[in-house]
Amino acid sequence: MLKHLYDTDCVTWSPQGKLFQVEYAMEAVKQGSICLGLKSNENVVLCSLKRQPSELAGYQEKQFKIDDHMAIAIAGLTADARVLCKYMRTECLEYKYTYESHHPVGRLVYKVAEKSQHKTQSGAKRPYGVGLLVAGIDPNGVHLFETCPSGNYYEYKCQAIGSRSQAARTYFESWFHLFEKSTLEQLILHGLSAIKKAIMEDEELNEKNVEVGILGKNQKFTHLNAQELRDYIAKLDAFNPNSQIQQE
Amino acid sequence: MIFNSEISGQQQHTTSPVVTGGSVIALVYNGGVIVGSDTLCSYGSMAAFKNVQKIVQISQNTIYASSGEYSDFQQVVKELAKIDRSALQYDDGVHPSPKDYGNFLARLSYKKRCKINPLYLQNVIAGFHNKERYLALVDIYGTYLESNFITTGFASYFCKAIISNYWNENCTLEQAKQVIRECFKVLFCRDCRAHDVIQLAYVDEQGTHIEEPERVETKWDFNGFKSRANEKLHTQ
Fold it and tell me: What region holds the Proteasome alpha-type subunits domain (chain A) (predicted)?
């Protein structure tokens, strides 16, 4: 009950040291449909479950290319995601114009985090209601970052955000030690297996409601097309991570 | 009081340089890149400042030199140093490669040229990154050219023949140094604004090395010079 006394705006602390508006914004991320990312030494894979508002509608895209070497997957308010996506794309273009090279991934995530934090320290603004998984490759290596409405950002080996993402994270906890040396195909199958853990009982994965994006050291960001998605989903039942251990 | 001259409309545009540096010669060699320039800044035709370092380290694996207006050189050094320092601010261990500096300088020069207020310089950026040699020229207009050898100023007229005949891109460091010394000898003889004290700097896998200034050997004790002093003056 006391929550309601301190949650009117971002400029009010609660006695427990919380900013409730920021926490509510993080809830918005948890309401979005699941998206996850995982990386190996060579590749990063983003998988997301697309929602269809009604049977008449199309599926909401969740992954956006920022530059050849970087892409994001979103969970939360799509409109806020568009704003951040546009910002990131502009920054990458400007960096490329000035330096003729790719924007370092960590630095762009830092800039997004700065922007997000700014919204949490003003009486007249609200935080962005979207969490991003940023996949990118730069001279420092292969990266997967998560950004939050709070303005924090974290680097991950693999991470899932959005609705029922805990199930996917549990899958990751069991198998993430294999990811570093996985091939691209194994990585994709791991990602799809993790998503499968997070869908409802009456739902099933198909090429329409799943989105998979891949990035590699020598591979620009691409989405798997419908046929490739069908093929990978068909391989899911036969996919056994245990066999990967025996290989090593 | 408006001090910003752009707003007050009193900004002058650089139409001619005041304190100028001489030619810069840069060559690629087997394992790195070497840059040479003399240590003179001229005040018009006066050899005003004779011990000036005109090659500067920008980052761990990049060096910068230029010919032209010396105050613009100092300004560019500050601008490039800002970029290197930004890595400290972001705390992410990302350092620009030599090519990043070269392109940044090209963008900066082009911007200033578009405002008809150029950086009155021919810039040379040299570096060694990911086992690759990097050498580029950025001129007063913002033109960006990567090459195996770069000459600015009068060196472009006098020294290309020497470079063609005695240098190749896989020569040793010593050979490249000798070629540059030879070029500066010729320049000292023929270019009125040149000086016989030069400085060499090179970048290789270990990093940047800027050497102490050295005097090029030139010969002036020709008989013709000596006897001319005793020449009889022509009289009617």
Answer: 6-28
